[in-house]
Each structure stands twice: as structure tokens, then as C-alpha cells.
Specification:
By secondary structure, this protein is an alpha/beta fold. It has two domains: 42 residues, no CATH class; 132 residues, Rossmann fold. It is built from seven helices and six strands. β3, α4 and β4 form a beta-alpha-beta unit. The chain is globular. 22% of the residues are buried.
């Protein structure tokens, strides 16, 4: 289970944050989080109106962990996040890297290693451009590498070939000389100078 295994991001953040609020469009997931003792709300995070209707106090840090690749309208999503962030707060976006070394295997195997609900890949340029064109100023762009046990393969000889290639790709990405080939991206951004003041109410 993600809570006991310390792999659920919301629970991990709750251990270090003074206060934390979760937002998701999935009612069952939100209800589950509430039963776990966490504060969570149902809303479409790409809708500025729904975000404002939550009447939340703007946050010091807004974390969108492995979310942007799931939304079909990343521009509205990033603009809605402005309504959640204080004028001097931060937005942290993480997403799989379109250039990750593991993707070199795809043309050789004919199989994409991707979550079935992903709608897009993002590169350092496209992620930076999206943030910049939707009211955010990039402070840092960082690369991350998944643990080896996060990559799973199936099937005999094909599996052996994939594991071999995946290990080679991982060594290349973690050598320090080719950060563009790492598994994922972490963008840290602040609201831009022309950002519209938040209209959220304090609870």
C-alpha cells in the first residue's frame, strides 16, 4: 500500500508540511484520502472557476507531482495553479522526461514504457515553455532518476533484452554527463511579475 510503503506523495508531504491540502478530480480517491485522515477536495484542477470555488488559502508551495502528463489542457491547468499559489510562493512540477534513456528501447521492442493514462511527454524545453507562457517564471530545472525496481518487464527472451538495454540506458543517464537522458524532470517556478492577484478567499 502506498501509505505504508512511503510512496504516496501526499502522505510523504504531510509528514513535513505544517498543513497540506489535496485536490483531485476522482471522488473515490478523495474519499479514500479523507478516510486516511488527510484534507482533500474534489475539483477539476484545470478549471480556474472550480479551484476558486474551493475557497482555499493560497499556499506557499504547490506541488503537481506526475500530474501534467495526465491533463489534456496543460495551459489552463498551469493558469489555475496560479490561483492556489501565494505571490511569492512556488510551484513544483514533476513529469517523465521525453528524452529519458529508457525510451531508446521503444523502437527496438515496439513497446512503450508509459502509464496507460498519460496524454503527453514533456521535454526540458516544452515544460519550460509551458510554464513561461502561462504566467510562471522558472527558478530551476532538475533531473531525477527512478529506482531500478520502478521499471518492470515481462516475457522470456524479450524481457532479458529489455533489462539489458534498460540497465545500459540507466548507466548512461546517471553518469553525470548526460542529464537530459534521466527519467524525469522537476521544474521549480514562481508566479510571474504580471501574474493576476489571487481571488481566493481565506477559510
Amino acid at each position: 500500500m502506498r501509505i505504508t510503503g512511503k510512496t504516496w506523495l501526499h502522505a510523504a508531504l504531510a509528514e513535513v508540511a505544517a498543513s497540506i491540502v489535496g485536490i483531485d478530480s476522482d471522488l473515490r480517491g478523495v474519499e479514500w484520502a479523507r478516510r486516511a485522515g488527510l484534507e482533500a477536495y474534489v475539483a477539476d484542477a484545470s478549471s480556474t472557476t472550480e479551484i476558486e470555488d474551493l475557497n482555499l488559502e493560497p499556499a506557499d508551495v504547490v506541488v503537481a507531482g506526475e500530474v501534467i502528463e495526465h491533463v489534456d489542457a496543460p495551459g489552463p491547468f498551469l493558469r489555475a495553479m496560479l490561483r492556489l499559489c501565494r505571490p511569492h510562493g512556488q510551484l513544483i512540477v514533476t513529469t517523465p522526461n521525453a528524452y529519458r534513456a529508457l525510451n531508446l528501447i521503444v523502437p527496438l521492442t515496439g513497446k512503450e514504457f508509459i502509464h496507460p493514462e498519460h496524454l503527453a511527454w514533456h521535454s526540458p524545453h516544452t515544460l519550460t515553455r509551458l510554464l513561461d507562457s502561462n504566467g510562471w517564471e522558472i527558478e530551476a530545472l532538475i533531473y531525477y532518476q527512478n529506482r531500478r525496481d520502478d521499471v518492470r518487464f515481462e516475457g522470456g527472451f524479450t524481457r532479458a533484452v529489455r533489462v539489458l538495454l534498460a540497465n545500459a540506458a540507466r548507466r548512461l543517464a546517471t553518469s553525470g554527463r548526460r542529464p537530459y537522458w534521466c527519467d524525469g524532470l522537476i521544474a521549480v517556478a514562481r508566479p510571474g511579475a504580471l501574474r493576476e492577484a489571487p481571488s481566493l478567499k481565506r477559510r
